[in-house]
């Protein structure tokens, strides 16, 4: 971990999902170009925050910075206490069975073997994978693989779940099953931070919207207000489909 | 050369009929080369995995050297080991020269860079794919090494087989440190060299064909075992645990 | 019964050879550094089982060129040296690497070449003349070029012939840098002349177009000697067993075994231990 990054509990003793994910002075450059520059950011506690923006606006990079996969050049990120998970656009499943994929995540989380196996079996049967536990995970359909990746991410009861376009390459049925998982996670108190390119999905799921433009925050606010009438030029351009990254 | 098929059949017959001398040679060949591959894999695979996941200073240089060492001349390895193991050399008191142990050591030296370099390149691809997910799950880079080795086993088996192919076919190193001593350190390749030097070219070629056949059988056996072994294991053993089917 | 007779014969042989009292503990194996000619002709396979049966001492033979065998023995990587380059053997003893050198047996070198004998070697009066004929005809000649006993003998014969091939690049003089068998394979492949010891030649299986084109000159005499590696220099040497082997080889039992050995039906080594 970079010394400049502090993951700290903001409200010790408080309820985890009431804590804010807070960012100060965050800068990240790549290839000599400043990709992310955020002076101040706090995400609404609980609920679903949708990160929107044009291609190349820095959405995925921001997610990775918040999750700690990428270290910032400078700045601090203060996260609420608890585990974090992330699901990627393309599910990354181990070359093992469905069962072993969940078991692996719980094992790293430090859960003992007996309890682990019990939880995995319970999770698999609850989500309809009970009869396919021994099947190689990669033999599942694309939608099922992503659903398994979601279940794996949620298996450790994360305080925050980061989602990077998890349904971008899925058909409508698979997309709606993923969305159902997201809703249920949010209901149970997991803070969801999700990147999507689908304004319809952002409308359906989002409680809060964060619009990124060229690595900076163009607009942030409740989803209903954003979709009713964005206040920023970038927000209006985004909604009528004319927001591009100028060269 | 018209006698070749006849020589081949008679060499094959010697093996099938259980000719003690030839069998001893075949078995010693397998013992030495498999032993060398096991040692080389124990060193090379973790080394390759480590190079795949970490970015130590001089990593490119290490990889370049490793790739170059894949072409290590067996004679040079044999000679270097001879100088070490010779009674006049620093390890002379171990009395390992002209023993199968010395031959295993020589082949392990030859094969380790091959397994390490091939493992590195195979596991690097896997790490590209797994890195973010494993980090997200909370696994450290070094902690990822066993995960990569387990999930990359198909590619690693191929790397081990490439090493085995090199070891079993190698003659220069085992000839020098083994001495090609009858009933002690004579293996397939040194027997072939000996028969060639006796001018028994047909027999030498026939033994060579038997060697190829044995290498083929080992490959087939490993690929069958590898296919079974590649299926997920572990929790399936526990009572109502899921049935594990064959994986890719 | 046969075993018993062999045992009696062995004991009497050992006594006749002046063996010291039976070896105390389980006899240890000895390593003999020797030359390809003794191995490729099958001599060791022919006589060693008898020695091991009589004494219980297993013998492990490392067969390399004489030059390499002498260097290996100087490093202490062997208990006994059995090679054929008398001046070098004497130098080996002189330098303190070995104890006494003893004659064991002899055979001779022969010149082999293509049956049509384009260089006219068959007509030569002696060995130097034969080599001169090859040099003058520029006929291909395959030399060991590996510092072996045979190579040393060949160089001495060229010197006697007043020739110095290989000094400059000469297309007809090919140094193979390999053992006798490999060199004969090359000679057969390119229809070249070559100098070889008779034992290797008779046992050699890939003669191709080659025949003996010159033999019989006393200059082609090829003496084998045996030396115990000096145990004071190399304490690892199994001196007791090594000496037993030397005594057997130069004694009546070993000498008889050498005389009885046949390669392709011919006697190829002639015992002459003093």
TrEMBL record, chain A:
GO terms for cellular component: plasma membrane. Residues 21-239 form the ABC transporter domain. The lineage of its organism: Bacteria, Pseudomonadati, Pseudomonadota, Alphaproteobacteria, Rhodobacterales. It comes from Profundibacterium mesophilum KAUST100406-0324. One of its GO terms (molecular function) is ATP hydrolysis activity. PROSITE patterns: ABC_TRANSPORTER_1, ABC_TRANSPORTER_2. It holds the Pfam family ABC_tran. Keywords: ATP-binding, Nucleotide-binding. The keyword Nucleotide-binding applies. This is ABC-transporter ATP-binding subunit. SMART domains: AAA.
UniProtKB/TrEMBL annotation, chain B:
It comes from the Bacteria. Keywords: Membrane, Transmembrane, Transmembrane helix. GO terms for biological process: transmembrane transport. The keyword Membrane applies. The chain crosses the membrane at residues 65-85, 97-118, 203-225. Gene3D superfamilies: MetI-like (1.10.3720.10). GO terms for cellular component: plasma membrane. It is a multi-pass membrane protein. Residues 26-222 form the ABC transmembrane type-1 domain. InterPro entries: ABC_perm_TupB-like, MetI-like, MetI-like_sf. It is found in: Cell membrane. This is Binding-protein-dependent transport system inner membrane component ABC transporter integral membran.
TrEMBL record, chain C:
Residues 26-252 form the PBP domain. The keyword Signal applies. Pfam families: PBP_like_2. Keywords: Signal. It comes from the Bacteria. The keyword Transport does not apply. Gene3D superfamilies: Periplasmic binding protein-like II. Residues 1-16 form the signal peptide. PANTHER family: EXTRACELLULAR TUNGSTATE BINDING PROTEIN. This is PBP superfamily domain containing protein.
């Amino acid at each position: 971990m970079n010394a400049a990054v502090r993951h700290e509990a903001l409200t010790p003793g408080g309820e985890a999902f009431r804590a804010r994910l807070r960012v100060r002075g965050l800068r990240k450059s790549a290839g000599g170009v400043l990709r992310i520059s955020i002076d101040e950011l706090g995400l609404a506690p609980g609920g679903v925050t949708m990160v929107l923006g044009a291609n190349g606006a820095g959405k995925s990079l921001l997610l990775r910075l918040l999750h700690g996969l990428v270290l910032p050049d400078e700045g601090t990120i203060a996260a609420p206490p608890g585990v974090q998970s992330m699901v990627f656009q393309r599910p990354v499943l181990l070359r093992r069975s469905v069962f072993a994929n969940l078991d692996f995540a719980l094992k790293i989380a430090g859960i003992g073997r007996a309890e682990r196996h019990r939880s995995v079996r319970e999770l698999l049967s609850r989500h309809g994978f009970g009869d396919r536990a021994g099947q190689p995970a990669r033999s599942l359909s694309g939608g099922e693989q992503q659903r398994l990746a979601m279940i794996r991410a949620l298996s450790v009861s994360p305080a925050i779940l980061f989602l990077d376009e998890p349904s971008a390459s899925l058909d409508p049925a698979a997309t709606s099953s993923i969305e159902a998982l997201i809703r249920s996670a949010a209901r149970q108190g997991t803070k969801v931070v999700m990147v999507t390119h689908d304004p319809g999905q952002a409308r359906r799921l989002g409680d809060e919207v964060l619009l990124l433009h060229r690595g900076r925050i163009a607009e942030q606010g409740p989803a209903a207000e954003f979709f009713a009438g964005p206040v920023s030029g970038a927000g209006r351009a985004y909604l009528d489909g004319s927001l591009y990254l100028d060269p | 050369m018209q006698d070749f098929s006849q020589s081949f059949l008679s060499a094959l017959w010697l093996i099938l009929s259980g000719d003690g001398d030839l069998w001893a040679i075949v078995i010693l060949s397998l013992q030495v080369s498999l032993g060398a591959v096991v040692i080389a894999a124990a060193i090379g695979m973790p080394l390759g995995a480590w190079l795949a996941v970490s970015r130590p200073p001089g990593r490119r240089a290490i990889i370049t050297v490793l790739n170059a060492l894949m072409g290590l001349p067996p004679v040079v390895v044999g000679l270097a080991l001879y100088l070490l193991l010779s009674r006049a050399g620093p390890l002379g008191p171990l009395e390992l020269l002209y023993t199968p142990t010395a031959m295993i050591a020589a082949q392990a030296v030859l094969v380790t860079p091959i397994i390490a370099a091939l493992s590195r390149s195979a596991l690097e691809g896997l790490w590209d794919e797994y890195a973010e997910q494993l980090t997200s799950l909370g696994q450290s880079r070094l902690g990822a090494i066993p995960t990569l080795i387990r999930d990359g086993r198909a590619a690693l088996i191929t790397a081990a087989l490439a090493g085995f192919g090199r070891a079993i076919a190698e003659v220069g190193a085992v000839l020098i440190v083994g001495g090609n001593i009858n009933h002690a350190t004579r293996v397939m390749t040194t027997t072939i060299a000996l028969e060639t030097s006796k001018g028994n070219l047909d027999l030498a070629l026939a033994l060579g064909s038997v060697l190829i056949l044995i290498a083929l059988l080992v490959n087939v056996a490993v690929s069958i075992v590898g296919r079974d072994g590649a299926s997920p294991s572990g929790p399936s053993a526990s009572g109502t645990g899921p049935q594990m089917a064959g994986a890719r | 019964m046969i075993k018993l007779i062999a045992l009696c014969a062995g004991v009497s042989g050992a006594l006749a050879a002046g063996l010291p009292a039976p070896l105390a503990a389980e006899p240890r194996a000895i390593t003999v550094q020797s030359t390809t000619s003794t191995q490729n002709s099958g001599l060791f396979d022919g006589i060693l089982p008898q020695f091991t049966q009589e004494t219980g001492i297993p013998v492990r033979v490392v067969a390399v060129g004489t030059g390499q065998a002498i260097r290996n023995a100087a490093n202490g990587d062997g208990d006994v040296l059995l090679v054929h380059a008398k001046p070098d053997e004497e130098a080996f003893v002189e330098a303190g690497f070995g104890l006494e050198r003893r004659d064991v047996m002899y055979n001779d070198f022969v010149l082999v070449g293509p049956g049509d004998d384009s260089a006219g070697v068959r007509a030569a009066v002696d060995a130097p003349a034969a080599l001169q004929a090859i040099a003058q005809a520029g006929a291909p000649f395959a030399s060991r070029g590996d510092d072996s006993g045979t190579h040393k003998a060949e160089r001495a014969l060229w010197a006697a012939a007043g020739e110095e091939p290989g000094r400059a690049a000469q297309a007809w003089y090919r140094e193979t840098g390999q053992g006798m068998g490999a060199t004969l394979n090359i000679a057969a492949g390119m229809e070249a002349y070559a100098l070889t010891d008779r034992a290797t030649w008779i046992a050699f299986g890939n003669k191709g177009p080659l025949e003996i084109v010159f033999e019989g000159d006393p200059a082609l005499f090829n003496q084998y000697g045996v030396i115990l590696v000096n145990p004071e220099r190399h304490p690892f040497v199994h001196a007791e067993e090594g000496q037993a082997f030397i005594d057997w080889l130069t004694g009546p039992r070993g000498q008889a075994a050498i005389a009885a050995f046949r390669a392709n039906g011919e006697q190829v080594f002639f015992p002459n231990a003093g």
